[in-house]
Specification:
Blueprint (H helix, E strand, L loop, with lengths): L1 H17 L12 E9 L2 E10 L2 E6 L11 E6 L2 E5 L16 E8 L2 E5 L5 E6 L1
Antiparallel strand pairs: 1-2, 1-8, 2-3, 3-4, 4-5, 5-6, 6-7, 7-8
Length: 126
């Protein structure tokens, strides 16, 4: 009976993993992404490059959002954690700095990053 349970659990695990529509099933989130950042009704075009645990990026609007020119990121489950390593001036809202934990989804080349405060990145892999 125990072997049957193990076989069933193995089958369910393979079924769940096989049904994923995510591009990152093998950890392939790396790449250059272009799209928008939204906070409330304000929107800005952005670029975000993810490569081997290091990120960089920029925004068409100064410090909206503020993306470090060389930060670090790590992934766990459906969360990506950005660690900002830049030095910033105090003349803007620091909650606009890309940092902390974000829920992410990568499917068909589209990367969505959603912060608990409502901030949203909608990006397309180049």
């Amino acid at each position: 009976m125990r072997k049957l349970h193990i076989v069933i659990l193995g089958f369910v695990w393979m079924l769940v993993m096989g049904c994923s529509d995510s591009d990152d099933a093998n950890g392939d989130i790396q790449g250059a992404y272009f799209g928008t950042f939204e906070r409330g009704s304000s929107v800005s075009n952005v670029e975000l490059i993810l490569n081997k645990g290091v990120y960089t990026g920029e925004s068409e609007t100064a410090k909206f959002p503020a993306i470090c020119n060389r930060g670090e990121y790590s992934i766990s489950s459906n969360q990506i954690v950005f660690t900002d390593t830049c030095i910033w001036t105090a003349d803007f809202d620091w909650t606009l700095i890309l940092g902390g934990s974000w829920e992410y989804r990568l499917a068909n080349g589209n990367l969505t990053l959603r912060h608990p405060n409502g901030d949203l990145y909608s990006l397309k892999k180049k």
